[in-house]
Amino acid sequence: MRASTSNLLLIGPAALMVLALFLYPLFFSLVSAFTQDDLSFTLAHFVKVFELYSNDIKFTVIIVLSSVVLLAILSIGIAATLTLSPFPKLVAVLALLYRLPLFIPFIVAAQMMRTFLAKNGLMNNTLVAMGVMTPLETVSLLGWSGIIITFVWKQLAFSTLLISGAMAALNRDQIQAAQNLGASRLRILVDVILPQVMPTIGVALVLSTVTIMSVLSVPLMIGTGSPTMITADIAFRVNSYGDYHVANALGMVSYLICAGLAWFYLRQSLKDKGALS
Amino acid sequence: MAHLDIRQLQAGYGDKTILHDINLQVQKGEMIALLGPSGCGKTTLLNAICGFVPTQSGEVHIAGHEITLLPAERRNITMVFQSYALWPHMSVAQNISYGLKVRKIPKAQAHKRVLDLLSIINLEGFENEKVTNLSGGQRQRVALARALAVEPDVLVLDEPLSNLDAKVRLSVRHELKALQKKLGFTSLIVTHDQEEALVMADRVAVLNQGRIEQLGTPEDIYQQPQTPFVADFMGADNCIIYQASTPSVQLNLANAAATQKLALYFRSSAAELRTVSDRTEAGLTISGVIEQSAFLGQQYRHTLRSGDQILQADSRQCWPIASSVSLHVPPHALHVFDLATHETPPSFQSNSRG
Ligand SMILES: Nc1ncnc2c1ncn2[C@@H]1O[C@H](COP(=O)(O)OP(=O)(O)OP(=O)(O)O)[C@@H](O)[C@H]1O
Ligand SMILES: [Mg+2]
């Protein structure tokens, strides 16, 4: 009895912090999304959200899904190269390079991408100078493709770090055993490594999704205005109209998108566990 | 012609050379044990044969074909790992049949082979078991079956038994040897347990610092070590430096040259303790004082001091501490080396023959 009281006291401060800084605002925004100013229940904010922003919601979902798919392919590719490549020099260079974006904030990354991807940006200028394109043929990659490129570039470091860590933690003998039974590197990746690092890939992608859903600077700086991502809409509702109700309703929608992905991930990993046992 | 032929192999990690000038010829169906202290390069040698460690110079041939530069996946040499290295997400049958799947053997045929192997390793009925549910000994047998499933040209085993407890180790060792006799696979087994090497192998190679110090039958290695290192490593760990002038040490060998400075190695079990007498006898006789005795079950092991040298001798009888005794080693149990050359002087060679 005494022990449990003192345990409560010990976790008290931490629990209070969670309550005050996370649960209270969450609860508050939930209430705000479903009520009028006089606290009476209404769905009007959600009606407004779907009237005004259903295109932006679709846009956000598409951006998130394509970024995550690209992220998965690229980070598995890099992590696999780091784990299986027979060339130690290549591995050393790659291991250094892929980590760089970790240390660059989103807003700086967005600014860099802006100067890189614009119609007369660094990339197009280089292509023109090399004679690959004429100035008339250049297109601006700002817009949806630029947003995806920026998100993937920035999150690649993080998800590769997680995935290659999981691959490095596998016993080296397991890879060698497959190798001397005649398996090629690609087969080893598919048959031996991926099944064992699946849970980590899931975690990396879910965390990346949540990050992408919450970044404001990238859609603002690289997007073309309309359609744009939910974060930009929330900022607009708050800054231009002081309309917290609709902003909170939009927030609920992005919670639901994240929750949907998390549910998909959990169901998948439970299924895998079931298949194994 | 040798089945596996290793010529002047030199290999290591990066710029570091671990193996120097390894020459080893293994006949088809032969089992060779690699024996040596920790860090001497046993695992590195197996890795070089498998293709996991690049060769710096020298050649490796299998059945007349050179494989020095072939990547590991094209060598048809399989390894049994100390850590078993089974894939935890696959069942027993999936583990064993993986090599067959990679080689595109038809499913039915592969399944039959898995069942055959399971009965060979006495694990019938385990095919759908998760490998994580098996005991250490069972896992090692599955790993063995997985390596044998593809009928490798050479099977290499890296301390396959060292993760097992003493009893299981004996039974798996016995099974492994029986299996090797029955199936006749060519194999190299690494161990640092000398008994394991002597019992299992047709020939034993003793490695020291990346070189083969001696290669021979278990009897050869045990009874006629060619270097002080091999003598010491094979249990003749009593070493006494002999000079004709030391009064407490008497060496009576037919062909002793009195001027030489010699290193004499012998096993504690080959030494005999007696009360001091003036009797002269062929062999080595040392007088000393008992310092300590320990009960080993079959006999007592005594620690004896003679001058500044400490020696060990076994005796069925427990000699009292501080008693003066004389220690006698018969000529055939003595391993004699010239201190300058670390070789057995030619005139002594007949003595060390058992
Ligand atoms: N991956 C590696 N990179 C660099 N040096 C290594 C590597 N693996 C082993 N070595 C070095 O090679 C030498 C031989 O190692 P090896 O693993 O072959 O020894 P071993 O005879 O198998 O020893 P043990 O009985 O302890 O397994 C050691 O000095 C070790 O430091
Ligand atoms: Mg080793």
From TrEMBL, chain A:
It is a multi-pass membrane protein. Keywords: Cell membrane, Membrane, Transmembrane, Transmembrane helix, Transport. The keyword Transport applies. GO terms for cellular component: plasma membrane. The keyword Cell membrane applies. Its main location: membrane. It is found in: Cell membrane. Coiled coil: none annotated. Residues 57-265 form the ABC transmembrane type-1 domain. PANTHER family: INNER MEMBRANE ABC TRANSPORTER PERMEASE PROTEIN YDCU-RELATED, INNER MEMBRANE ABC TRANSPORTER PERMEASE PROTEIN YDCU-RELATED-RELATED. Belongs to the binding-protein-dependent transport system permease family. CysTW subfamily. This is Sugar ABC transporter permease.
From TrEMBL, chain B:
Keywords: ATP-binding, Nucleotide-binding, Transport. GO terms for biological process: quaternary ammonium group transport. Pfam families: ABC_tran. The keyword ATP-binding applies. SMART domains: AAA (SM00382). It comes from the Bacteria. Residues 4-234 form the ABC transporter domain. The keyword Plastid does not apply. GO terms for molecular function: ATP binding; ATP hydrolysis activity. PROSITE patterns: ABC_TRANSPORTER_1, ABC_TRANSPORTER_2. PANTHER family: SPERMIDINE/PUTRESCINE IMPORT ATP-BINDING PROTEIN POTA, SPERMIDINE_PUTRESCINE IMPORT ATP-BINDING PROTEIN POTA. This is Fe3+/spermidine/putrescine ABC transporter ATP-binding protein. It comes from Nitrincola tibetensis.
